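Data availability (excerpt). The following record was deposited with the supplementary files.
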Amino acid sequence: MSELQPNASPRQGIDLIDLRRLRPRLQGSLDAAEAALIDYSRDIQRREPLLHCLWSVHHITAALGSLRLHKAEMLALEMERGFLRLLRGDVVAERRNLVMGGLMRAIKTLPAYLDHVEQLRLDSGRGLEPCVNDLRRWAGEVPRPAALFFHYPVAAECGVTHAAQTPAEEAIRRGADVLLAPYLQGAKGVLGSRPGAESARTLARIAQKMHGFLAGTVQEPFWLLLMALCEALAAELAEPDECIAQIFKAGAFMVKYAREHGSAVDPDMDYPAYVQRLLYYMAACPVQPLYVAHVWTVFGITENTLRDAQRGLIHNDALLAALRGASSRLSSLIEALEQADLEAVATGRAPQPEDSIAELQAIRLRLIAAGEELLAEDLRGADAMLEQLYAGRFAEQPERCRQAVLSLAQTLVDTQLAIANRVLLRGEQPASASSFAVLAPLLLATGERLNQLQEQLQQGADDEQRSAVAAELLTMEGALFLQGLLREAAVAGQLGRWLGEARAGWTSDEPAAMHFAQALAWLSLHIERASLDPASAGDHVLCTAEQAATFLQPAPASETEGARAADAAEQAQDALPSEQTETIPAAFREVFLEESEEIIARLQSELPAWVAAPARDERLREIRRHFHTFKGNGNAVGLFSLGDLGRDVQDLLDRVLESQQPLDATLPLLLQEVLEALPDLVATCGGAGEFDAARVRELRNRCMSLGRGIADGR
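Predicted structure:
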């Protein structure tokens, strides 16, 4: 069995930081090519503008290749060929005009496609096939297969048999050795000028044997899909083309590699890319015989799969315009509400700000237009809260009024920060948008301060300065700890404690001091990358910082600052005051109860199915969304205890969905207990019985405890 896990990929993914760094240069080259093409169109006798076009597009092709954006690179290569044909005079009259139009469309499409890549973090190929193949058709060349531009979202372990018993490595090598020759002969027969069904059946039987040899490995989905493809070819439901030839060639290399290395994963083979191409032919089958139907079931293919995959691109400029508009209006609204003093407005001592509720609704519409439904949902709760404050709902309850105003302010500021980060990331939606919105300012500030501390120490520092730097590192430890960045907090704390206890007169040549400097530099680099793109920050940089920090051995301390912060946080949770029974005004009671009952009913329908097969899947994301809505509904009507419970469950599921660790075995039970408690808690808020505040605290503490464990990698 391979050392890689079934869902491991031997290929490097897209580096968004490198892509964003190159985007200005790519756009500059595209602008230069567009200007030169326009210049050429004015006088087609001049060849110099075409040379400028070729030079610019050549740089684009090289950059896309270095970024591993191979599908985008196909478009850039066709652009190069198109300009070269114009330069040589290979296309004339109407075809020349068509090629020039196709090149201009490609120049306009490529920026939209790069926006799309940044949003989805993958080189899907969506929207490129018409641009590529039109340029080829107008030059009289055969179009590229549509399968090369197809992408279908597939779970990491889809098609992999869990706990599969594979043969011994030597048996796999011997079997692959026997199968290699008939595989090559069968592939030759299928791809020949007169392909035969018998050759396709032979390949299907070989694929079935390889599937048995490699069950439970990264290679298994390829052979499962190849069986179905050969079935489709034998039944004339698919026709051999360039892409199928590439698939068969890849299969031959896989058989040869298995003959030499058994079940090991070939690091040079892009398995996911070939799986995507095979899935295209499965989705394109007009009917579904045995193996094809099985593939449809395993991978969740439907009649709409091809149509959805072929939808065109939406340029990010439209999304960013909507986001910027929402951000600007929300900033103005927050400023107006701050000047109005909402507590005074709620008690009738000050007039209401004009059009504030209508403004909130306008902002929500812009967020929905930008595809930010969750942020719009948060503002729906803020809208309801603002209406209650204006209606004098808390006029006789100063503490509740103050709590409502603070909750409203926090929602508006968090939403504004989330929108700002969407704009900063060109509209990209991180795996956990709200958590990144909160973390980004902390990470940016921490990264900048770490760089300053490095420079300060490099210039030399006396005891007083070292003590000040040590204190700052310990402060960072507490701030990072409270945001769930436990590993980063541990490194910062270890550095701070060592520096605070280092003996006087130490020099930078001492081994411990060198380890300190290395750990500080690696931590700074990790924080900097995480502030730009959390998903691409990588674990190796932080591991290097941790490894360097392990060489620092400060004197034993009775109680560290980090431990005190953790104890204080635990004590604060245990010492929460007893909440009073929270009730809802009659005007909101029926709506809240009806919406809550609907959320509970959906959770009762979806959670048992997820508990039966726990996974980081779409069902868990839907469960998380229901708790997100429950949080907003609770806060909107002043039921802050229930709102906090919904928030803690949502935060827990955010961390679960972000984590790469195996799912905690206690998570399904905890979610079931929360769901079991919700009906009674909601009913008491409507006036039936007493609110069980102790139960809510206990569930919240368990959610936060499990969330901290996930963040810590436990």
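Summary of structural features: Residues 59 and 660 are 37 Å apart (CA to CA).
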